[in-house]
Amino acid sequence: MAVMTDARGDVRAALATIEARCVVRGIDLVDYKALVDKVKTWEDYWQQWTLMGERYLGLADRYEAAGWRVSAGAARVRAGVAFHFGKALAIEDDARYRDLTTRSVEAVAAGQKLVDPTFERIEVPFDGHYVVGNLRRPRGVDRAPLALLVPGTESTKEEFPRWEDEFLARGMATLSMDGPGQGEVGFQLRIRHDYEHAVSALLDTLASRSDLELSRVAAAGVSLGGYYAIRAAAFEPRIKAVLANCGPWSLGEAWSKVFPIYVAKYIWNFGASSEEEAHERAHALTLEGVAERVQAPTLVVFGAADLLFDAKREGQRTADALPNGELWMFEGGNHGVTNFATEHLGPGADWLLSHV
Q1: Annotated catalytic residue, options 155, 176, 200, 223
Q2: Which of 82, 115, 148 is the last residue of a domain?
Q3: Which run of H or E residues covers position 221?
Q4: Are 83 and 135 contained in the same domain?
Q5: Rounded to whole angstroms, how far apart are CA atoms 204 and 258?
Q6: For position 1, what pLDDT does the model report?
Q7: Residue 223 designated active-site
Q8: CA distance 317 to 197
Q9: Is the pLDDT of residue 55 over 70?
């Protein structure tokens, strides 16, 4: 079977790196494997993820017509996750990228509203535009502590419904956010190193609510979101505990390990004209001079087999620099440690709840 490559690299190799992640985030393993069998080019990548999302939407329509509200909601969420993965690594067609972003946002929101009556979309003016969060609250809890869930470079809030469920089951509310350079917000606001300002804007908006216990706020981030979560805690005192999953110590220093497809995404997310310009801007995203400011207890989760960020250089260095850092290192763990999900997603939520 011929496999096409281009400047973004081998599409099937890229797919192989996200298999566990896709399944953990809600894509059925059988559906994922059927998609892989059909993808030989990056054009196929766009098309097959789009078709998967549309098939899930068709199922959602059938279930809703039958009055099966929860099944319909779950199918719409899966559709949104599929649309998200369909554009997550492929950014060369701007119109299609924007279309799938919008479809992902709409499908996840529609599905969540069917599954969870507490779901709310939070929009906050920020830097001439806005930042956005999806808020959910646990049932039966009058005043819930809050877990702020922070995505990375090509992740978005639409990827997190399953992760949110881990916190909701433990009595915590969740706010999955898109900040500068992320998801729907990324079209207007590019990556910025001082992510804490976006976090503060969201927390300010929630401050008057009586259904959230904002004296107990945790931040959890994945990949570059791990850097953002630590950075936010260094400058935002309302964050009382942090979980940083596979975040870099310095994005600029780690640049040489970044896959070609991620380089293309960073160029887009920075609004840069070249890889050199994106790399230069990446040096601003560093924990040097930042990590030691974090007084909140911080759990660093890392996979020893991470192909994007070196576990010792990034993970161990970060944990050692934090005044109250703890490291969970998973031998054989991939980027995001999605191949050991049952050993850190729920337990990580437990750890955060016990420290806020």
Answers
A1: 223
A2: 115
A3: strand 212-222
A4: no
A5: 35
A6: 28
A7: yes
A8: 25
A9: yes
Give the range of the structural domain holding residue 79, as residue numbers without chain letter.
Answer: 8-115
Alpha helices by DSSP H, 169-305? 196-206, 224-235, 260-270, 275-282
- For 193, counting Cβ atoms within 10 Å of its Cβ (0-12 exposed, 13-18 middle, 19+ buried), the class is middle
The CATH number covering residue 63 comes to 1.20.1440.110
Sequence-distant (6+) residues with CB within 8 A of 37 are none
Q: What is the C-alpha radius of gyration for the chain, rounded to an integer number of angstroms?
A: 19
- 88-141 pLDDT, tens per residue? 877 778 889 999 999 999 999 999 999 999 999 999 999 999 999 999 999 999
Question: What does the angle CA 229 – CA 217 – CA 173 come to, to the nearest 5 degrees?
Answer: 105
Mean pLDDT for 154-174 is: 97
pLDDT above 90 covers a percentage of the chain that reads 86
Cα–Cα dist 190/266, whole Å: 10
Of 81, 115, 149, which marks where a domain is finished? 115
- Region of residue 248 (phi > 0: left; psi between -120 and 50: alpha; otherwise: beta): beta
Task: Give the strand pairing for 325-330 and 298-303.
Answer: parallel
- Summarised one tens digit per residue, pLDDT across range 221-271 is 999 999 999 999 999 999 999 999 999 999 999 998 877 778 888 998 898
